[in-house]
Design a protein that fits this description.
Low-confidence stretches of chain B: none
Largest interface: A-B, 95 and 98 residues
Distance between the termini of chain B: 75 Å
Mean pLDDT of chain A: 93
Number of strands of chain A: 40
Number of helices of chain A: 19
Strand content of chain B: 15-25%
Strand order of the largest sheet of chain A: 27-31-32-36-35-34-33
Largest sheet of chain A: 7 strands, mixed
CATH topology of the largest domain in chain A: Phenylalanyl-tRNA Synthetase, Chain B, domain 3
CATH architecture of the largest domain in chain A: 3-Layer(bba) Sandwich
CATH topology of the largest domain in chain B: BirA Bifunctional Protein, domain 2
Strand content of chain A: 25-35%
Number of domains of chain A: 6
CATH superfamily of the largest domain in chain B: Bira Bifunctional Protein, Domain 2
Oligomer: heterodimer
Number of helices of chain B: 12
Helix content of chain A: 25-40%
Mean pLDDT of chain B: 93
Structural class of chain A: alpha+beta
Largest sheet of chain B: 7 strands, mixed
Distance between the termini of chain A: 92 Å
Strand order of the largest sheet of chain B: 1-5-6-10-9-8-7
Radius of gyration of chain A: 41 Å
Chain lengths: 784, 354
């Protein structure tokens, strides 16, 4: 909402300058987006009247003869120049807002004495499609426009959706006045004439339209609006059209009630407000043919027993009955419509107008008469002496009085946490236009908000009004102290576990990344991830049509970026985030590319699959947990370098080398990945007393076929070692002489310990014999 | 034997081995001094005393010389070894990987940490949310103009066996209106209240989504921190206290909070808060807050009742806030473009350590 400062001052003579005003507005809840200074036009820009406009043979430009107190010749390309209109003329020496300095120029072989200006060239608005059209007698020819267009300011404020009463100059002034500034109330007084109204109004849907006023004026001459009005409309973001249309916009911007002017000659019998019929069509003012249904509310013109759509209620008028240059009779509609219905229609039609914007938020249902009078007053001021305004008007009013709000002033103090005297609260509410009545119950008031405050409905709304007008800066600061209800205890645990996991991964040397939640079926297919289940109804881009089903594709893309941009390796990345398959579930994924410790002047350390697995094992140890990997294929992993990860015996995900086919498609070097479902279970977290008796160690080498996994041998040893086995460590994997081809030897350190005494050699030999027997029974040889 | 020559010889012994040989040569079982000692018996008492004294002096002198030379040789050997072992310690060490958290995680941890000190618990919620929790239950029905303030990603479910949104108790809430990528973390207010009994204090970190064209200051995905405190006598002054503590936690003792009225459908009264940034001497608009709207308490109690739980929120008051996390990071570090955050360029991410 753009508020012109000089306009605001008409209602609030004490309004301070924009800087102080910004502070006051912020205190009321109105955030200032920008303050735009309007400067007076250069003194060499003057009012001129067009005496003649001549086409030049074979040229696109025209020769204008202008009156600026003397006749001058100007060449212009504007299509709308015509004899009798007023224009703004930049004389030689004038400086335009864009920095152009004008001189006498030759155009199309003719000397042009300056330049006739469009709104944009003049710096008052955006429109550049023709000359700014001014009333023929706006000023004595040759008068600098600066005489009327002094410096001004436009304050653009952000209006929250609950406060439609702020969507007008007067509305903002009224709220500022509650801070103690004096307010000039609008009291429009059009000269009225007793005239018979030539039309009637019928409301068939009083739910959709609970108030409809129709006023009448005749003897209107359609012409451009006065200079000051045009500038204000432009400054407020609207384009002046003609005095009649401008008066509707001006009155709406000033008072907040949208209105619509019809050429009364076209609505002779009157208007009917009714629901649209399925498939009914209407060409709106913007020239678009719209197909409607019974949810839409229409203003229709009664033609005998028929009704013809003339406007989409509260949204936009129809093209057929609009004000034209030839209009002499005006019917003015100022009505009130159901906000929800207007919003739904506007949304369905994709049509957001100044009217729908206001109606869907809530317009003052008691405002139409004042707004209509203001329109008529403006029409008489701008439309000439002959305008006759009918004394009578049609006013179909089905609005219901609002019930008062039961309000306890004590509640304000309780909710805000500071003491507000009851007298202060009553005064604030009254200043805002509320009626405050005591009730039979002590400490309870009946507060009736003014009709324009559609947002005030519950007690808390009134609490905010008191706190707001007294000032939020007055609220003290306290800290509450209480014991949370026991069912809130322990709710932190999942978050804490995730944080701890992230710290461990970072501590191991992995950089956390956070990727977008989006993916696409194409990407999932390329990366061999599960097909998406969650799709965007309104995707932003082709690669963001669905939600991710795994984390590793994001990490692979991060790696691609890092390689493309020549970032320093090695790359150790991880992400903790949610994936979307049948449910939304959290995961951890990690990526390793390159030796974790790169060789520089010395040799590098760590390599390949076992580096990543080592990190996983260290992470598990840091988290007091156990991890185990068993050979298992996954679609996106190398079939020979992949396994299932068991965390504290529970299967949680995969680890392995990226499938070479994917690596080739993405042009990536060898990459190792792991992806685990969260939350990971916690370790036992138990304490065992420190050992007091010495351990007994033995070594053992087992010869097995190449295809036998380490895990299998480990399983056999652990199953038969007995409960004194404290530690089992593999220290060598050997292939070669004297073993046969296809054989390997796995060598282990075994540590046995009894917590209550020293084990004898005999006992330990017994444990070893059990293991050896079990291995031999399983078909493996012991290497002596 | 010539003692002078012997001492000189010992003093010049080149190695520990040759020194040992000299020790044997003079003081060993068959050493020269030992043999001289053996001849003492054949001498007269005077001669014996005199020669004995001389021999003992020789022996002492030799032992001393041997010890001195040994110490000297050992020292030389040590020096030689030290020299030989010395390395250029100015060469770089092994480049063990150094990891770190994403800048968003770091800022979030900092914020969450400030609230934890005030006794808040941390919980998280789902990113795919039902229209009910994201909008309706927080007083934003579909006709509400406030929905225009948040451009929404609406989602649909395809491919069998489909997708289920789970409610606070794991129940299927997929059908409760449409489904969205949550536009804010505020839906968690409802989910948490349904599950728990006041009084409590929680903060909810999480990623949220808006259908925005991205540019230097707009992202379609970003993070919020939501706070919620509910109890029998929670006030707006408590809210101001908590936000002031946040300001002090972030910016030190000069940090302070400023409240201005604003509107969100889920609070009444509504607040927009700013924090004073002493370093730059300016106010930072960081988020919205307010007293929990009674509509939310009612929606929660109605849901609880349907789940067979007692109504727990009648007569309660509470406050809530929500703030953007990236914005704080942008301002604090002077990062020129919000898109840096999720491009995940390592040369960006690796700068946030320490």
């Amino acid at each position: 909402m753009k508020i012109v400062h000089s306009w605001l001052k008409e209602f609030l003579p004490e309004a301070p300058g924009s800087e102080r005003l910004e502070e006051l507005l912020a205190g009321l809840g109105l955030e200032t987006e920008s303050i735009h200074k309007l400067t007076a036009p250069h003194r060499q820009i003057v009012f001129a009247r067009v005496l003649a406009a001549e086409n030049l043979e074979g040229k696109e430009v025209r020769r204008l003869v202008l009156d600026i107190g003397q006749e001058v010749q100007v060449v212009s390309g504007a299509p709308n120049a015509k004899a009798g209109m007023g224009v703004a003329l930049a004389l030689p020496g004038a400086l335009l807002p864009d920095g152009t300095e004008l001189g006498v120029r030759k155009i199309a072989g003719l000397e042009s004495y300056g330049m006739a200006l469009s709104a944009r060239e003049l710096g008052v608005g955006e429109y550049a499609g023709g000359l700014l059209e001014l009333p023929a007698d706006a000023l004595p020819p040759g008068t600098p426009l600066a005489e009327v267009w002094g410096p001004d300011e436009v304050i653009e404020i952000e209006i929250t959706p609950n406060r439609p009463d702020w969507l007008s100059v007067y509305g903002v002034a009224r709220d500022l006045a509650a801070l103690g500034l004096s307010l000039v109330r609008p009291q429009p007084k059009p000269r009225t004439t007793p005239l018979a109204l030539p039309f009637g109004v019928w409301i068939e849907d009083p739910e959709g339209c609970d108030r409809f006023t129709l006023s009448y004026a005749r003897g209107v001459k359609v012409a451009p609006s006065p200079l000051l009005v045009q500038r204000r409309l432009y400054a407020a973001g609207m384009r002046p059209i003609s005095n009649v249309v401008d008066a509707t916009n001006y009155a709406m911007l000033e008072l907040g009630n949208p209105m619509h002017a019809y050429d009364a000659a076209f609505i002779r019998e009157g208007l009917v407000v009714r629901r649209a019929r399925p498939g009914e069509k209407l060409v709106t003012l913007d020239g678009v043919e719209r197909t409607l249904d019974e949810r839409d509310l229409l203003i229709t013109v009664k033609e005998g027993h028929q009704t013809r759509p003339a406007g989409l209620a509260g949204v936009m008028g129809g093209a057929e009955d609009e004000i034209r240059d030839t209009t002499t009779e005006v019917a003015l509609e100022v009505a009130h419509f159901d906000p929800v219905r207007v919003r739904r229609t506007a949304k369905r039609q994709g049509l957001k107008t100044e009217a729908s914007y206001r109606f869907e938020r809530g317009v003052d249902p008691d405002g139409p008469i004042l707004a209509a009078e203001r329109f008529m007053e403006l029409l008489q001021a701008w439309g000439g002496e002959e305008v006759e305004v009918a004394q009578e008007r049609l006013d179909l009013n089905h609005t219901r009085p609002r019930p008062p709000i039961s309000f306890r002033p004590g509640y304000t103090s309780r909710l805000v946490g500071m003491d507000y005297p009851a007298a202060t609260q009553a005064e604030v509410l009254q200043r805002l236009g509320c009626t405050v009545q005591p009730t039979a119950e002590a400490g309870v008031w009946a507060v009736t908000p003014p009709s324009h405050r559609v947002d005030l409905a519950i007690e808390e709304d009134l609490v905010e009004e008191v706190a707001r007008i007294v000032g939020y800066d007055q609220i003290p600061t306290t800290l509450p102290s209480f014991f949370p209800h026991p069912d809130n205890l322990g709710v932190d645990a999942p978050y804490e576990a995730t944080e701890r996991l992230k710290q461990v991964m970072a501590g191991l040397g992995f950089q956390e990344v956070l990727n977008y939640a989006w993916s696409s079926p194409e990407e999932c297919e390329l990366m061999r991830a599960p097909a998406p289940t969650v799709f965007m109804q309104n995707p932003q881009t082709a690669d963001r049509t669905a939600l991710r089903t795994a984390l590793y594709p994001g990490l692979l893309k991060n790696l691609q970026t890092a390689l493309a941009q020549g970032e320093d390796g090695p790359f150790l990345l991880f992400e903790v985030g949610n994936v979307f398959n049948q449910n939304e579930t959290p995961r951890l994924a990690a990526l390793l590319c390159g030796d974790p410790v790169p060789g520089l002047w010395q040799k590098g350390l760590g390599e390949g699959f076992f580096a990543l697995k080592g990190f996983l094992e260290t992470a598990a140890r840091n988290l007091g947990s156990q991890v185990r990997v068993e050979q298992e294929a996954a679609p996106y992993l190398h079939p020979g370098i992949s396994g299932a990860v068991y965390w504290n015996r529970q299967k949680v995900g995969q680890i392995g080398a990226l499938h070479p086919a994917i690596a080739a498609a993405l042009e990536l070097p060898q990459v190792f990945l792991l992806e685990l479902s969260l939350p990971l279970s916690k370790g036992p977290g138990t304490f065992t007393d420190i050992a007091r008796y010495p351990a007994s160690m033995r070594d053992l080498a087992v010869v097995v076929p190449e295809s036998t996994p380490y895990a299998e041998i480990e399983r056999v040893i652990r199953a038969h070692a007995g409960e004194r086995l404290e530690k089992l460590e593999i220290f060598d994997v050997y292939r070669g002489k004297p073993l046969r081809d296809g054989e390997k030897s796995l060598a282990f350190h075994l540590t046995f310990r009894h917590e209550g005494r020293t084990l004898t050699d005999l006992e330990t030999d017994g444990f070893m014999q059990n293991i050896i027997t079990a291995l031999e029974n399983s078909g493996y040889a012991i290497r002596k | 034997m010539n003692i002078e020559a012997a001492l000189e010889e010992i003093g010049k012994a080149p190695t520990l081995e040759s020194l040992q040989a000299l020790k044997v040569q003079y003081l060993g079982k068959n050493g020269l001094v030992t043999q001289e000692m053996k001849t003492l018996g054949r001498l007269s008492p005077e001669e014996r005393r005199e020669k004995g004294r001389v021999l003992n002096e020789w022996k002492a002198a030799l032992e001393k010389a041997l010890e001195a030379r040994e110490a000297q040789l050992r020292e030389e050997a040590l020096q030689a070894r030290l020299l030989q072992e010395s390395i250029d310690v100015s060469l770089p060490g092994y480049a063990f990987p150094s990891g770190g958290l994403h800048i968003t995680s770091r800022i979030m941890q900092e914020l969450v940490g400030i609230f934890r000190k005030q006794g808040f618990s941390v919980v998280e919620g789902p990113e795919v949310e039902s229209e009910f929790f994201n909008f309706d239950a927080i007083n934003m029905p579909d006709w509400h103009p406030a929905r225009d303030m948040q451009d929404t990603f609406w989602v649909e479910f395809k491919n069998q066996p489909g997708f289920t949104i789970q409610g606070p108790f794991g129940e299927d809430v997929t059908g409760r209106g449409g489904a969205v990528l949550r536009t804010h973390t505020s839906g968690m207010q409802i989910r948490y209240m349904i599950q728990h009994t006041p009084p409590f204090r929680i903060v909810v970190p999480g990623r949220v989504f808006r259908y925005e064209q991205t540019d230097a200051s707009h992202e379609a995905m970003f993070h919020q921190l939501e706070g919620l405190v509910v109890g029998p006598n929670i006030t707006m002054a408590d809210l101001k206290g908590a936000i002031s503590e946040l300001a002090r936690g972030l910016f030190g003792e000069e940090g302070k909070a400023r409240f201005q009225p604003t509107y969100f459908p889920f609070v009444e009264p509504g607040v927009q808060f700013a924090m004073w940034w002493p370093e730059r001497q300016k106010w930072l608009e960081l988020g919205g807050a307010g007293m929990v709207h009674p509509y939310l308490f009612k929606a929660v109690d109605d849901y609880r009742e349907r789940q067979g739980l007692p109504r727990a929120y009648e007569g309660m008051t509470g406050w809530a806030f929500g703030m953007g996390v990236e914005r704080l990071a942008l301002l604090r570090y002077g990062i020129p473009d919000i898109r840096y955050f999720y491009q995940n360029r390592l040369s960006f991410l690796r700068q946030f350590r320490g």
